[in-house]
Design goal:
Largest sheet: 8 strands, antiparallel
Structural class: mainly beta
Order of helices and strands: EHEEEEEHEEEEEEEEEEEEEE
Shape: elongated
Number of domains: 2
Helix content: under 10%
Strand content: 35-45%
Radius of gyration: 24 Å
Distance between the termini: 39 Å
Number of helices: 2
Oligomer: single chain
Number of strands: 20
Amino acid sequence: MVDQFGNDISAVGIPVTGFLGFAPAGTAFPTPSDGASPTLTLEPAYEKAGLLTEDGGFEWVLEPDGDQVKFFQEGYQIPSGLSNPTLVVKLAQYDRLVRKLAWGKTPDANGFITIDAGGHLTDLVAFSEEIFKNGVIRRRIAEVTVTKAKVDKSERGAVNGTELTLAVKRSPLLGNEHVGEWLIPPASTVAPTLTSALPSGQAAGQSVTISGTGFSGVTSVTFGGVESPLFQVLSSTQLKAALPAGAAGSAPIVVTGPAGASTARAYTRA
């Protein structure tokens, strides 16, 4: 909740767990709607990198590079458009996948590889997920290339991590930008309530904007008992839903979430 000073301590991100997945270049990205699902299942091509070290979580450096382009008229400038974005992460495990990521090699039947310290060129898709203490989920996806691998100095009784630095590339799947990001609110613990549904008098296939509360994690929207063919949760207090086929007249709306179904709200359709 936001206090009188405009601060919302419940919105502070304190990571408690997460994972990092990799897939070969060209693997399909989750759609924006699929990626927003709390129960997202990635394509089989994605492999999880396993445990990270305690201090080795995701460090995304997403900063512009180069000086701003300035103009003759004082005060006018625009970004150069250049950047050198990276993702740094430290993996705790040292296994087949980590070796493949770090050195670009798959071990033979003897567990043997050769390592070229000059690096390797392997294009990948990286997918990260962080779950915060407040229940919020942050996910990011990007096309990347491993540019550096550094194995920790071996210390008795300590985790021997492998730190990877990955260059993040512009992707046509992201509008020629670098990173796709989802921020998913925690599922509501109370059933949705409906306060309005506008505009009234819509017909099959047309959209209705429904306002209320408790829309996080909504699983179903019905009109007159018939499932909406398409709906999109815009926020915890608003969603859009397309009307299903049906006869003109009364079509009460019911929204269902993890904590149950709303009380039906009267709606008249065309």
